[in-house]
Amino acid sequence: MDTDYNLNCLLGSMEIQPRSTLQQDKNQVHQDRSIIENEETLEWEKYVEEVQEIIGYKFKDPSLLHQAFTHSFSQLEKFESYERLEYIGDSVLNLLIAKKHYFLHPDLPPGKLTRLRAANVDTEKLARVAVKYDFHKYLRHNKPLLKGQVEEFKDATLEYPLHSTGLIDPPKVLADVVESLIGAIYIDCNFSMDTTWQVVEGLLQPLITLANLETHPVTKFYEVCQKYGWSVKLIDTWEETGEMEVFVDGKFAGKGKFSGKKLIALNRAARNAYCEIVKNLSVETTSDDRACNETQN
Prior knowledge:
Elements lengths: L1 H12 L5 H37 L6 H7 L14 H22 L5 H12 L1 H10 L13 H12 L14 H17 L4 H11 L13 H11 L4 E6 H4 L1 E6 L2 E7 L4 H19 L9 H7 L1
Helix pairs in contact: 3-8, 4-5, 4-8, 6-8, 10-12
């Protein structure tokens, strides 16, 4: 008797939603989802038009462009990520640049050809392309820190208009997007290297040439020390201070700081030490030592 009474009280206190109301709720959810998907579709159609106008190429298969701008994140994945397109785009870009330099400089040895190609396809160069055309605006991602990283990188490039040769830290995702875009173009144009190059050559401007190709700061520093028979010692306090210090023949020569990456701190230390040597000693300078003077001024 008590059980029946308690059960009746429990059922009486529950609000039973009619079947028709439940169906209305389901329909509303479906409608809301459809509205969101339609808005996303319209937004992407706009993005496709904008990107095509920027690069001067119209896609036969726009889904390739969607894929090229989709970062690998599982919870929102509607299209495949750009990773496979990035893979093929990287290879195509290297071949295109190698082909250009091979015929442009018939007497240039492989070592210098390699340096020239690397300067035009490395992460910093491609990240500069991405920010120049605001490609990060079209990237589908869930990287909340990306906006700040992009702004920091853009500010850093102001000090080095063409290339920093390892002194600043470009967000790799920016370079990835450029490579994936190149891969998408290559596939969409039925693997035409000529068509792909027509687009890529415009995107990469200004290309780094033999006339403005700078030597890596670590290479320059060690070359001048070797030439004059100077001993070099590095003091590594990066874990504690984010700094690397350089001593030449037992005397402090320079230091570099960058808490984000030890390699960049080392590059900056070598650059600083080299510039101090150029400033204080009568050593033979190179054409790109003007950057030392600009930094000091």
